[in-house]
Amino acid sequence: MTKAQSNEEVPRRELRRDAADNRERVLAAAAAAVRREGAAVPMATVAADAGVGVGTVYRHFPSREALLGALTHRSFQLVLDAASQAAETDRPGIEAVRGFLDRTIEHGPELVLPLHGGPLLIDQDTLAIQAEVHRKLGSLLHRGRRDGTIRPDVRTADLVVFGALLAQRLPHITDWNQSARRLVDIHLAGMAPMMQPKSPRS
């Protein structure tokens, strides 16, 4: 590469980085706007919240459907990251599940999922991520059954639904994270194997 070519490459990299930053800014603003106003939120509102022109939004996402699809894909990727981090630990199954749920609470404001009123999944890449989320969570439950910390009738779908509920903050609760973690304690207590009652002495 000549010096002139190298000098030309620097601005190109900066432009690509700026475009990536703008795209992420739009997605973050869109996630908050959709959770606040619903899936019909105007694209102009998303642009204003992101601090960019509406043309920038349409340059990255040519339609509302494209934007909502990207939000759903991004949300499932965040959930997969949380599930993967939990699966990589050597903690007992029930505590690995707690780690996943804690990260779900932290990511809550960024998540737009079908269970939150987001678009139904049709994109094959997003469906593949969703399937991997289920596989990772299933492995956590299997670990818990094997080490005796999770009862055998808990299903992956139970964990998915509860995680989605935790990510949907209730507006009238001021400290949602604290309240959500209390719900996690209660839920995990219910996931633990039930103690067998002692036989009465004769």
Question: How is this structure best summarized?
Answer:
The chain has 202 residues and is mainly alpha-helical. The protein has 8 helices and no strands.
Provide the domain count.
Answer: 2
The pLDDT mean sits at 87
The second-level CATH architecture of the largest domain is Orthogonal Bundle
Number of strands: 0
GO molecular function: DNA-binding transcription factor activity; transcription cis-regulatory region binding
Keywords: DNA-binding, Transcription, Transcription regulation
Organism: Kitasatospora kifunensis (Streptomyces kifunensis)
Pfam family, one: TetR_C_43
Description:
One of its GO terms (molecular function) is DNA-binding transcription factor activity. Keywords: DNA-binding, Transcription, Transcription regulation. Residues 42-61 bind DNA. The chain is mostly helical and 202 residues long. It folds into two domains: 7-62, Arc Repressor Mutant, subunit A, CATH 1.10.10; 69-193, Tetracycline Repressor, domain 2 (Orthogonal Bundle), CATH 1.10.357.10. 70% of the residues lie in helices and 0% in strands. Helix 1 packs across helix 2 (43-50) and helix 4 runs antiparallel to helix 5 (93-107). The mean pLDDT is 87.
Record keyword descriptors for this entry.
elongated; mainly alpha; Tetracycline Repressor, domain 2; Arc Repressor Mutant, subunit A
Could you give the topology of this structure?
Blueprint: H1 3-37, H2 43-50, H3 54-60, H4 64-87, H5 93-107, H6 124-147, H7 156-167, H8 176-191
Helix pairs in contact: 1-2, 2-3, 4-5, 4-6, 5-6, 5-7, 5-8, 6-7
Protein name: AcrR family transcriptional regulator
InterPro entries: Homeodomain-like_sf, HTH-type_TetR-like_transc_reg, HTH_TetR, Tet_transcr_reg_TetR-rel_C_sf, TetR_SbtR-like_C
Pfam family, one: TetR_N
